[in-house]
Amino acid sequence: MLRKWKKWATVSLLTLIAAGCSPGGPEETSEAGAGGEGSGKGQTTIRFSWWGNDERHDLTQEMLDLFEEEHPDITVEAEFTGWDSYWERLTTQAAGDNLPAVVQMDNSKLTEYISNDLALDLNTMIEEGTINMEDVNDVYQDMLVVDGNTYAISGGSNGLATIYNQDLFEEYNINLEPGYTYEELGQEMARVSEAEGEGFWGYDFVKADYETFRHYARQFDQHFYNEEGTGVGFEKQVLQDFLTTVTTWIDEGIATPYDVTAEVNESGESMVANEEAAIASAASNGLVGVQTLAEADLGLNVMPTAADGEKSGNWVRPSMSFMISSNVSEAKQEAAAELIDFITNNEEANQILRAERGVPIASDIRESLAGEVDPTVQETFEFLEVLEERAGDPEPLPPPGESEVRAAFDRMLESVKYDEMSIEEGVDSFVQEAEQILNQ
Amino acid sequence: MKTSETLTEKEITPEFVEKERKRRNLRESLTGYAMISPWLLGFFGLIIGPMIYSFILSFTDYDMLSAPQWTGFSNYVELFTNDPRFIQSLQATFTFVVIAIPLKLAFSLFLALLFNTGRKGSGIFTTIYYVPSIIGGSVAISVVWRQMFGRDGAVNTILDAWGLDTISFFGNSSAAMSILVILIVWQFGAPMIIFLAGLRQIPDDLYEAASVDGAGIVRKFIKVTIPMLTPIIFFNLVMETINGFMTFTQAFLITGGGPRDSTLFYAVYLYEVAFEFLNMGYASAMAWILLVIIGAFTLLIFKSSTFWVHYD
User: Fold this and answer.
1) Which InterPro entries does this one have (chain A) (predicted)?
2) Which fold has domain A158-316+393-438?
3) Start-end of H helices in A22-103
4) Do B275 and B284 form a contact (C-beta atoms < 8 A)?
5) Which CATH superfamily is domain A33-156+319-369 in?
6) Taking Cα atoms as reference points, which of A217, A415, A247, B257 lies closest to residue A433?
7) How far apart, in Å, are the Cα atoms of B127 and each of A340, B114, B133, B184, B189?
8) Tens-of-pLDDT digits for all 440 residues of chain A?
9) Contact: A259, B172; criterion CB under 8 Å
């Protein structure tokens, strides 16, 4: 009898092991036991997840080693992947009530986590000083504060900018001071593309038309989305004017044709670096990557402004942020806050991280890194100072469903650029589609 | 009437034997089930369970972050009445299947015929030609494909060297579709091997008889090879059609569904809805519709087979 028992026990054990090994089996069985209960005194284990490339993975892990050294009572388990699989993984974890304590967040996704009560309000922790924000100018955090509650801390900032070929600008004696208009830019680019001949265009919209338009609309005191997040927040006329500029530039050879720009983009190249365009829309931290591809000296400038605009279109945005998951234990939330504070304010940590996530938000960290980082990285720091001064109203976080609306915007744009739709038709159908998506 | 000395004999009654046999049978089947239990667990836990769940989800609105909301048939209604991209994805998928699958079958049959001559070394070539079938669905090949047909890729460089106009493969709807068709046709290995096996089973005397009757090579192909091969063609057609409807990796990585949704295959749109827009309920409904479509096509091919498949 006993032997039989043993046999069954073995079989069921093997079965359990097999089930545990198969993909989709319970993950992280150790977490609940290790951190959950035993966190009262002694060791707290928190998980920290981020997306990125190998460089970021290495730097972040090195920073975490230092953190654990300085906080012997906290153990950090790192979870990192590339961008695409990151969101699949994170939503699955959210569905399974198993979010990491510290989650690297993207602006386009944060609202969804806030509206489902998954993001902890960090105000108390900031007031208590667990997360020290004394050195941080509000513009860096504006986007992450909703109804007075702080839902995430920027992990580094950037701004919408233009990257331009400095050598070429000098050659053609082009001088565009911040505040320059679309008309001025158009005239100069017409001159350059004319002189450079075939295969050269002035401006490259880099498939960032969506962002560029957000910047454009802000100048007319309008946001892309309305306050309730149920539809667009701009007047149709504004989008029509913007699209008219875009298509006219393409037709006149001032801006890169759509298929060229799409293909260059897709392959990870840059037309400015290839010296096929003189200037392009970009995120300011994009300069670091694009400069390595280019022979010419590149520079950063603000976006062009609309001549009849009333307000500044600029805003400083987190290139990514860190939120604390609201459904982990209080001890873990506390440990998570300490980690975020460490990333924000610790000099050594930032020397390791080298501003790879964006320009550090604490001013004394920026100062301490000055001279230590690459000249190109330094340039992105300086640009943010320019932007900080010229920043307009805070830009609200986009509502849930943004990624779908953005995809619809890009599709509409494609149709307009390929002349399958008139600008009026495009704007009408897009506004309707956006409302439909946002009201789902 | 038996006495106590024959107790053992008493035990071996026919009933006892029967009982003992049953007990052993039960034990054997239990052991059997225990042995395959890992698979059973996987089957129910990872296939049947999720399928049932996805069926239920298809009647809900579910963004993975908050609990599913029951919405009845509204996902299905929305799909058919108010989603132009769904219709577009069906169109793209049908176009692709209707063009790519017959081409692939014809090409693999053609190569199987070449290799069937039994010349020296044809075995090596068969092996080499099978390779694309193994690697063709991989991410690496898709990336290579994208490079090759890119703006400065190999294909355009060659076109340029010959003084021809370069083509924007990813900016042009039919060009984008074509490179996906070429990639799928290039993975001809699996059907080719099956065709080859089928060809080898056709008795030589049929060809001899046909020769005696004065049939030429073309006539022999049409009157002997094709009819004898119909069961194999049938099998390949079913398998490839099913795979064709589910094409994902290539379109997702090479064209990303573009330009302007022209290669937005069903599976690509499904992925987009599920993992980029987080509409799990809607995506589940789409998955079930795909199952019905594939089922319907398979059934159609099966029903039609009585008219064109010869078993003898």
Assistant:
1) Bact_solute-bd_prot1, SBP
2) D-Maltodextrin-Binding Protein; domain 2 (3.40.190)
3) 29-31, 54-70, 83-95
4) no
5) Periplasmic binding protein-like II (3.40.190.10)
6) A415
7) 56, 14, 10, 18, 9
8) 445 555 555 555 444 444 444 444 333 434 443 444 444 457 899 999 999 888 889 999 999 999 999 999 999 999 999 888 898 899 889 988 899 999 999 998 999 899 889 999 999 999 999 999 999 988 899 899 999 999 999 999 999 999 999 999 999 999 898 889 999 999 999 988 888 888 899 999 888 899 999 999 999 999 999 988 899 999 999 999 999 999 999 998 899 988 788 778 777 788 898 889 999 998 898 888 888 888 899 999 999 999 888 889 999 999 999 999 998 999 999 999 999 999 999 999 999 988 888 899 998 998 888 878 888 888 889 999 889 888 888 888 999 889 899 999 999 998 898 888 999 999 999 999 999 999 87
9) yes
- Cross-chain residue pair B171–A263, CB shorter than 8 Å: yes
Task: Determine phi and psi for A77, rounding to 5 degrees.
Answer: -95, 125
Cα B182 from Cα B94, distance rounded (Å)? 16
CB A80 within 8 A of CB A50: yes
Residues from chain B that touch A91, judged by Cβ atoms under 8 A, are 64-65, 275, 278
Q: How far apart are alpha carbons A58 and A396 in whole angstroms? A: 32
List every span in chain A annotated with CATH 3.40.190.10.
33-156+319-369, 158-316+393-438
Question: What residue has token string 């090479």?
Answer: B254
Dihedral angle of Cα B85, B90, B92, B93, to the nearest 10 degrees: 140
Could you identify the residue written with the tokens 């306050």? A227
Cis before A72? omega within 30: no
B123 touching A, CB under 8 A?
A: no
List the domain boundaries for chain B.
4-57, 77-308
CA distance A320 to A317: 8
Q: Is B278 on the interface with A (CB under 8 A)?
A: yes
Before B259, cis peptide (omega within 30)? Answer: yes
| Topology, domain B77-308 | MetI-like fold (1.10.3720)
- Across the interface, whether the CB atoms of B171 and A262 are under 8 A apart is answered yes
Q: Which tokens go with A360?
A: 């550090």
